[in-house]
């Protein structure tokens, strides 16, 4: 590091002191000439004195610049050695730099220890999630299969058939909840990484998400309008983004009454591609909007519908992990608009 690499404010200070020195010298010369008139010998002596003074000041500034530059260079080397776990540069000297270097080494050591602890906890969570997934999959699948077989049995009493259908419904709900929690836990612990984060046509992702809610919308005679050109691109992971959009669309279908309408509009600007999902459903009261993305939160009106309050939380986590964000605007009784912003590149 040389003096040219010093921070800009050092140069500003030097210029300020140089300006002050020039002003003082000019005042001094003017005062001398005013008192004693123009005397060549006196002027020569004064000029020599001023040159020596300026040279001494310049040498002093140069030495300080060199000292500061060397100090910063040593500090940079000490930080670099501490980051790579090399022996200390100052060798336990009784200086401020030595104290700073050893404090930095302790801090980096603590940070690495915490990183190892976090990684160990992630591995434990990974094993726990795998165990939960493995241990619940078989018995839950058996319950669903046996309940389906019971429902198909001839001569089954109507009340028994009703209870079997309830068992089936709750089994599917439990299976969906377990799978959602597993996805969420893997996403939060970094076990699932978003792949192929590149600009791709958005229409394919929207179509994939729509295909999963189309049957439900058709049963309620809900009209779905989509306006997304094939040229509209967004930098996103197709699989996980379609998962996030599916959760939003499922909520729209769920809370929109029969013969309602859902509109999907995709627009693009310089930085983001925005997907607006608007429904004519129940709407969200203004006091509940700040809480709807919380885990397991369900509004007062939503409690009359099936659900556990994890879909919006999962959607926000997925979109945020891709560098995007979600906004919501709603009015109770008039519908809701979710705006999903995804980066263009």
From TrEMBL:
**Superkingdom of the source?**
Bacteria
Q: What is its main location?
A: membrane
Which residues are listed as membrane-spanning?
16-36, 42-63
Reactions that this protein is recorded to catalyse: ATP + protein L-histidine = ADP + protein N-phospho-L-histidine
**Record key words, sorted:** ATP-binding, Kinase, Membrane, Nucleotide-binding, Phosphoprotein, Transferase, Transmembrane, Transmembrane helix, Two-component regulatory system
Q: Does the keyword Ligase apply?
A: no
The record's annotation in SUPFAM superfamilies points to: ATPase domain of HSP90 chaperone/DNA topoisomerase II/histidine kinase (SSF55874), Homodimeric domain of signal transducing histidine kinase (SSF47384)
Query: What is the top EC class of this enzyme, as a single word?
Result: transferase
What GO molecular-function term can you cite, just one?
A: transferase activity
Tell where it localizes. Membrane
* Keyword Cell inner membrane attached: no
Q: What is this protein called?
A: histidine kinase
Give the species: Paenibacillus pseudetheri
- Protein's gene: sasA_24
